[in-house]
């Protein structure tokens, strides 16, 4: 496996070798069909030597490898895709290019290699190749190694594995007996392909040097040994053989030839695609469940995202900064999403008349790397588990679909994204995508309500009732670790507040006190090293993050996790707020710090409360994501709430009528801490400042007036507040004003009255 430097001619294999870096480059398998099995098997057997075995590269998902070099041959004769590239044994392996053909690169790899390899081959007249490896696995990891059967049964098994007639097949190129004799289980052959920009740069540099060399030496030099000179003739001979065979089949039975596995796979995909056209018609004529879309810009560590959210905070789409496109989880909301972006000051490229492009599919575009993946929506399924219907290469303008019925609707979908495909081709999904699509069809992966994992100890979990403890130890996506992909904009969890300002900010925010940098101890919830902002209350960065963000998320489908959330909200209302809390209040712990067990319980309840902004709906969920007010209602903490133009009118825990949830939160806080408060007290009369009988929101026992300022953006309301402030100053009244931004610091606002 060569280091990355330049393209060089390898005389021992007769190939111009593209350099490859196993640590950086993509190692792809390739499509093997029945007609390429003999060549691939022959090549595999010629390379299976014990002395050639090497440790597996870091990115290889196997136990060992055998490095190989293979040819990459442009195959414009391929009637499925004229950009096709054949993976062939090197020229020294014997026979023509067709005899050495082992398979085709998958369509998704052609945008990396096809154009560059064709240029390099045509302008140099020399076969091109790349590095790769044969995957090897320990025999003990193969279940067949542990099967208990006698030698006779083993022989029968080996024969069956090699094919019905004892012949190799695309699924079993090397028999089990041959693998046991070699000492490893044989996997796929992988080819190492650098990124597209790297391949182009390497080819451009090599051809430029090749041209300069030709100008310095105008005499025609003989081509290097091993050059495949007979490609055109081999193709012509193969075509003649196939034509004669096809004509004889046509004359005998009316068909042109034997149906291949490739034909059957294509027919299967076409048959599965056709019923979707009718389902998409029904989908387009039904209403979506997203409400009041708005656009927001979020930047973390120089990474800017422009998101389209609905009123509950669910991410409906993303405008990929700076040039687009706008991708959506539901194509029906495109018009509303474009309006939300314009209101946010972003002009996204879009067709002038979306209604003229109305035959779009129930599918979504996932932008990643150099290509766009087009996924078929399915109720209750996570985005990453959706089946792929095709892909688009923006650089070449090529749309590749996996079924003929997808060509027109997927073209319309891309046009709605502001792009016009220049070429639409049919292709077969690469091996990984084929397996992914089969899994999606058989056992679709539902979205997990667990968005983050926690490591709460068993002793601490007992603070929560048994039915709900499972969510304190559950893992996202059914047990797999959360995705901590390279380049994530999120900071690393470092449990040292001196070095990690995010940890310090989270800890100080929860406990409204500076962190004691000199004091360390085990986290009370998980046991990791931690620091404290209150004496004896040690909580690590991870647990502080979970207390502020939660471990659960709304998926649009209720279940046992919903019951845990209802319990947590009711318990917080009981021990900490004496009523329904606001989202802002959850950022601050308000239970007595002298009771560590109660503090632990308050934090664990925060773990179980999903924040509306973290909702991740499946496609076509049972219900829309709930807003915070709807969650409070679902927990039966707002049973008497009435929606008005001023907000949600409700009675506080002490029976006082509140005109909004904001007022309710303040009233419940005063009640919870035993601060006497009289609602709706009248201000003193004044001939100019108070001629209409102005009233405050509350009056405390010492005569202090309290105002909850919730509508300061309204000019008339702001003018009335100004008169109240002037009136209080004129009469020497103490006036305390509270805004929504103060909800997480009410203990400081009312510090003079708290016990």
Which secondary structure elements does this structure contain, and how are they paired or packed?
Elements: E1 8-10, E2 15-18, E3 26-28, E4 30-31, H1 37-47, E5 54-55, E6 64-74, E7 85-88, E8 101-105, H2 107-124, E9 128-138, H3 151-162, H4 176-182, E10 184-193, H5 196-216, H6 231-253, H7 261-284, E11 294-300, E12 303-309, E13 315-319, E14 326-328, H8 334-343, E15 363-368, E16 371-376, E17 388-393, E18 398-401, H9 407-416, E19 423-426, H10 431-442, H11 458-461, H12 466-469, H13 501-511, E20 516-522, E21 529-534, E22 537-539, H14 541-549, H15 560-577, H16 596-607, H17 628-634, E23 642-644, E24 647-651, E25 657-658, H18 661-672, E26 677-679, E27 698-700, E28 705-709, H19 715-731, E29 735-739, H20 746-749
Parallel strand pairs: 2-9, 18-19, 28-29
Antiparallel strand pairs: 1-2, 3-10, 4-8, 5-6, 6-7, 6-9, 7-8, 9-10, 11-12, 12-13, 13-14, 15-16, 16-17, 17-18, 20-21, 21-22, 23-24, 24-25, 26-27, 27-28
Helix pairs in contact: 2-5, 13-14, 14-16, 15-16
């Amino acid at each position: 496996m060569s280091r990355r430097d330049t393209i060089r001619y390898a005389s021992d294999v007769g190939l111009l070798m593209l350099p490859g870096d196993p640590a950086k480059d993509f190692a792809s398998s390739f499509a093997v069909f029945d007609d390429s099995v003999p060549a691939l098997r022959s090549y595999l057997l010629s390379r299976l030597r014990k002395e050639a075995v090497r440790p597996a590269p870091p990115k290889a998902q196997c136990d060992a490898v055998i490095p190989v070099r293979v040819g990459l041959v442009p195959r414009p004769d391929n009637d499925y895709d004229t950009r096709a590239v054949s993976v062939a044994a090197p020229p020294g392996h014997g026979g023509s290019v067709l005899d050495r053909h082992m398979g085709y690169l998958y369509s998704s790899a052609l945008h990396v290699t096809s154009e560059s390899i064709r240029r390099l081959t045509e302008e140099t007249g020399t076969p091109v190749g790349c590095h790769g490896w044969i995957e090897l696995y320990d025999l003990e990891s193969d279940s067949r190694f542990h099967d208990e059967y006698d030698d006779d049964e083993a022989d029968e098994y080996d024969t069956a594995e090699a094919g019905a007639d004892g012949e190799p097949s695309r699924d079993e190129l090397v028999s089990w007996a041959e693998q046991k004799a070699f000492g490893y289980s044989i996997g796929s052959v992988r080819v190492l392909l650098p990124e597209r920009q790297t391949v182009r740069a390497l080819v451009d540099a090599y051809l430029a040097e090749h041209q300069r060399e030709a100008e310095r030496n105008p005499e025609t030099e003989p081509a290097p040994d091993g050059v495949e000179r007979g490609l055109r003739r081999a193709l012509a001979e193969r075509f003649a053989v196939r034509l004669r065979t096809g004509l004889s089949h046509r004359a005998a039975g009316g068909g042109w030839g034997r149906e291949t596995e490739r034909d059957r796979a294509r027919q299967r995909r076409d048959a599965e695609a056709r019923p979707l056209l009718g389902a998409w018609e029904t989908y387009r004529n039904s209403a979506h469940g997203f409400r009041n879309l708005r656009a927001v810009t979020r930047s973390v560590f120089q990474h800017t995202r422009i998101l389209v959210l609905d009123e509950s905070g669910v991410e409906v789409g993303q405008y990929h900064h700076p040039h687009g496109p706008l991708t959506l989880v539901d194509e029906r909301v495109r018009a509303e999403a474009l309006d939300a972006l314009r209101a946010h000051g972003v002009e996204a490229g879009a067709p002038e008349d979306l209604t003229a492009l109305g035959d779009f599919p129930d599918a979504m575009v996932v932008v990643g790397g150099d290509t766009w993946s087009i996924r078929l929506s399915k109720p209750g399924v996570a985005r990453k588990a959706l089946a792929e219907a095709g892909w688009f290469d923006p650089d070449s303008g090529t749309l590749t679909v996996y079924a003929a019925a997808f060509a027109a609707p997927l073209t319309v979908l891309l046009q709605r994204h502001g792009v016009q495909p220049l070429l639409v081709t049919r292709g077969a999904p690469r091996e990984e995508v084929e397996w992914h699509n089969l899994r999606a069809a058989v056992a679709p992966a539902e979205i997990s309500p667990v968005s983050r994992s926690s490591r709460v100890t068993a002793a601490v979990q007992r603070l929560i009732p048994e039915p709900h403890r499972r969510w304190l130890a559950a893992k996202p996506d059914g047990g797999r670790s959360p995705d901590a992909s390279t380049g994530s904009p999120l900071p690393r969890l470092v449990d040292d507040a001196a070095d990690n300002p995010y940890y310090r900010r989270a800890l100080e925010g929860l406990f409204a006190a500076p962190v004691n940098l000199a004091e360390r101890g085990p986290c009370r919830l998980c046991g990791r090293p931690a620091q404290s902002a209150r004496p004896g209350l040690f909580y690590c960065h991870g647990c502080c993050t979970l207390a502020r963000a939660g471990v659960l998320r709304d998926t649009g489908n209720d279940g046992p996790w919903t019951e845990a959330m209802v319990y947590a909200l009711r318990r917080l209302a009981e021990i900490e707020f004496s009523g329904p809390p606001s989202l802002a209040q959850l950022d601050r712990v308000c239970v007595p710090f002298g009771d560590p067990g109660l503090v632990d319980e308050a934090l664990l309840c925060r773990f179980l409360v999903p924040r509306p902004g973290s909702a991740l709906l499946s496609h076509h969920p049972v219900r829309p994501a709930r807003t915070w007010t709807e969650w409070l209602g679902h927990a039966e903490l707002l049973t008497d709430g009435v929606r008005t133009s001023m907000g949600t009118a409700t009675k506080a825990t002490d029976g006082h009528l509140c005109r909004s949830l904001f007022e309710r939160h303040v009233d419940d806080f005063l009640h919870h801490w035993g601060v006497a408060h009289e609602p709706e007290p009248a201000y003193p009369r004044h001939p100019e400042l108070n001629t209409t009988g102005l009233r405050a929101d509350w009056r405390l026992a010492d005569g202090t007036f309290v105002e909850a300022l919730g509508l300061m953006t309204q000019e008339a309301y702001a003018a009335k507040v100004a008169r109240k402030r002037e009136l209080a100053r004129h009469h020497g009244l103490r006036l305390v004003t509270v805004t929504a931004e103060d909800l997480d610091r009410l203990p400081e606002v009312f510090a003079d009255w708290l016990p």
